[in-house]
Amino acid sequence: MLILLPPSETKRAGGTGLSLSAQALRFPELAAHRSALLDALTELAKTPEAMVSALKLGPKQRGEVDINGRLLDAPTMPALDRYTGVLFEALDSETLTPSQRAFADSHVVIHSALFGLVHALDPIPAYRLSQSSRIPGLSLKKHWRDSLRALLAERNDLIIDMRSEGYAELGAAPDRVGSYYVRVLTTGSDGRRRALNHFNKKAKGEFARAVICAERDFTDLDALVEWAAASGWRLERTEDEIALIV
User: Fold this and answer.
1) Residue 82: per-residue pLDDT
2) What pLDDT is attached to residue 192?
3) Which pLDDT does position 55 carry in this prediction?
4) Long-range pairs for 40-48 at CB < 8 Å and ≥24 separation?
């Protein structure tokens, strides 16, 4: 089973790990793509105003320029601990047991705009780059689309894609039985289903945490749905998608 998560814009600063090493990141076939983006981002940081414009940074975010300028020398920490957005606050990685963290490292992959796919415990530095960022002369969609799509197509296990649509466009999961995109829905007072916005991230984080804490490697959707129902979660299959009802 593979759980695909989006990253978050916000990240913890610092870290206790050594500086970034290509050998420390899984999916070595992405090394050239990562290197090209790292070079482009660190070069862009030499012209602060250009980076502010490219990344659409506000006045209080100008420190992100310095963070990107130090990418190659900055300390690292596990990717699962680096991100601090709503989804990751709900996942609450720091309270996972060593066994649960090991399970997450085997079954959870985070989709970074800078590094492509990284395993939960891969060590990464703080950075600023999102799927909507515009690097001069480089389209993130063209840069990542084919390589990530090919990488995911090689898998034959259950894929639970919890990424945002923007990140899914940077590298689509395979269109096959056993690969499912997750949408978080709620039932309104009129009985109609509606998609959630902000709170969909919280629900995804809580659900991802529940699966990690269960430490079960589900091989098919039926097994996952059965476990979810017994654990207080409601999943419904809709063609090639899963509706997480909250």
Assistant:
1) 98
2) 79
3) 87
4) 40/135, 40/137, 40/138, 41/68, 41/71, 41/114, 41/127, 41/129, 41/135, 42/68, 42/69, 42/71, 42/72, 44/68, 44/135, 44/136, 45/69
Q: 67 CB contacts (<8 Å, ≥6 apart)? A: 13, 74, 126, 127, 128
Give the span between the Cα atoms of 41 and 68, in whole angstroms: 7
pLDDT mean for each 10 residues of the chain (246 residues): 97 95 94 95 92 87 91 97 97 98 98 98 97 91 97 97 96 96 87 78 97 97 96 90 94
Burial 79-118, CB ≥16 within 10 A → b, else e: bbbbbebbbbbbbebeebeeebbebbbebbbbbbbbbbbb
Helix crossing, 198-214 with 98-107: angle to 10°? 110
Contact 1, 218 (CB under 8 A): yes
Q: What is the pLDDT of residue 147?
A: 97
